[in-house]
Specification:
The structure is a homodimer of 316-residue chains. Helix content of chain A is 34%, strand content 27%. Chain A contains 10 helices and 13 strands. The first copy, chain A, has a 7-stranded mixed beta sheet. Chain A is globular, with a radius of gyration of 20 Å. The model of chain A has no long low-confidence stretch (mean pLDDT 93). At the A-B interface, strand 2, strand 3, strand 4, strand 5 and strand 6 of A face strand 2, strand 3, strand 4, strand 5 and strand 6 of B.
Chain lengths: 316, 316
């Protein structure tokens, strides 16, 4: 397959389910898309050997995961997702089928989330590189949630359950085993994370003051919230909602399950700060209260089940 | 310098001259920018060893060139440029000063063109990778110029002069020498191409029917116009406007200067198709008439000075 044929196959893959907002797409110098108020844009790159290992994931999973990671940033703003632009870096000798697999995996997720992949670039690279620039839209920037609005008195909560992606990676790496039905679910959490777009919008509408997606891990990501908001975030490790099978994997690794879930990363759940009464009023989003926002200095502190301080990360 | 310090230095570099349209930028999950009608978006990646060689260019030139190449796609649509998002892939051991140099080179060009660099991602990479997603804006998509509007009877013209970047690269490669003052100008054309944003807007307003920027070289890029428009494009090699010093370099390489200029690429001039009367009425843009649009089949033909057919490239 020559480059031209590959591009045409990619174009055909991405043409399905394209939004009516798209005026021009792949095949011209630039894509043209009807905008709506404010553009919310994020860029996220995944490189083989750094962010994933291509022998552990199918091409479709690599494509899904890269797009999910980028869209997760839009979810953390409470934005609608609109379009995506793909940079695909292919090492010499890449089979066209692998490149198309990456595209198919991304496109499946895109269609499901009503996102149109409308442009990009293909280049040679030393390692498989999949980078998405994603654009969401909002009528009112005041309804978008940054990292900087947490206030003392707010509660801290997370969507979904934590630790699954990290446990799935440990299983793939052969560092731990998981029994029974948990194995597949954990690996899937790592391979095909689900960006929390609907949850992000619901939280933004429901009074979220600061929000971030959990890519680096709760401990680090909460520190970003604390730093941007100029506040102390106190988290209770024992309160973290663990995904099924995570405790078992953490045990096998000799780690405290809560500490494992707080540092493993790549869950792409949302961590949100909001007033206690806003949390109580929220409906339809699976949320677990995991801590509270205190006065500065900015930082993250961890307490154990009895309320004792068990750890502390200072602002950077 | 740790990653956090590098990010803060990049943030400081990009903060200068930021447009009032920018609501949120680097430091949150996503950038937020006030839009205007239609978003015009292109993505262009440059990888060390493929699109440039880092031993031939300064870090600033690498940054300038990558951003210029991406913005050139917006120029070819006749769009205004607005924002840019940077993916910076850094090999292990990259000096922070080199990463900052890339940022400074891009930022200098961005400020001059009123473009705000408002987001991005930094990752490890095997080879230095500089990729920009650029976004321009237009109130009316009917005023944007695609590749598909050329009609039989149109004339074909180019902005500026051709062959300089290719000749500059030949000089840097040691494949040819250039005498006197030409050397620096040729090398500069390769290292710091100037995207033709103002020319693109003027041509769009002045009746351009199809337009493309010359990145791959006129022969290939004209074929894209021909293919998209479903028309034959006839070019007269002898009519191509050569940059000073190009003929000398082509001679040294044993090539016909016109053929060299038509295939060397990376000039980032614009090639435009428009009605003869529109060309005559255009003012303030340096344009050279180099050919005409004929009936299908789609393809590009070359004639020599006497009008004889000297070459032919078929549609792909």
């Amino acid at each position: 397959m020559r480059e031209r044929e590959l591009i045409e196959s990619l174009e055909a893959t991405f043409a399905a389910g394209r939004s009516a907002h798209v005026v021009r797409s792949i095949g011209d110098d630039a894509a043209v898309v009807r905008g709506r108020g404010y553009a919310v844009t994020s860029l996220d790159a995944m490189v083989d050997g750094i962010h994933f290992r291509s022998e552990q994931l199918s091409a479709e999973e690599i494509g899904h995961r890269a797009l999910a990671s980028a869209i997760s940033d839009l979810a953390a703003m409470g934005a609608d997702a609109g379009e995506a632009y793909l940079l695909l870096g292919l090492p010499r000798g890449t089979q066209p089928e692998q490149a198309l697999g990456v595209a198919r995996g991304a496109q499946e997720l895109a269609e499901r989330l009503d996102v149109s992949i409308v442009g990009g670039d293909i280049t040679g690279a030393s390692a498989l590189t999949v980078s998405f620039t994603v654009v969401g839209w909002s009528e009112d920037p005041a309804q978008l949630i940054g990292r900087d609005g947490a206030r003392p008195g707010d509660v801290v909560a997370v969507t979904g359950a934590l630790g699954a992606a990290g446990a799935g990676l440990a299983v793939l790496d052969g560092r731990a085993a998981a029994t029974g039905g948990h194995r597949d679910a954990l690996v899937r959490s790592y391979a095909r994370p689900e960006p929390r777009l609907a949850e992000g919008r619901a939280l933004a509408a429901g009074g979220a003051r600061a929000m971030i997606d959990l890519s680096d891990g709760l401990a680090t990501d909460a520190l970003h919230l604390a730093h941007s908001s100029g506040a102390m975030i106190e988290l209770t490790l024992a309160a973290l909602p663990l995904a099924d099978g995570v405790a078992e994997v953490a045990d096998a690794l000799g780690l405290d399950p809560g500490a494992f879930a707080a540092t493993a990363g790549e869950d792409y759940e949302l961590c949100v700060c909001l007033a206690p009464e806003a949390l109580d009023a929220l409906d339809g989003v699976r949320l677990t209260r995991i801590g509270r926002v205190l006065e500065p200095p900015a930082g993250v502190s961890f307490t154990d089940a009895s309320g004792q301080l068990s750890g502390y990360e200072h602002s950077f």
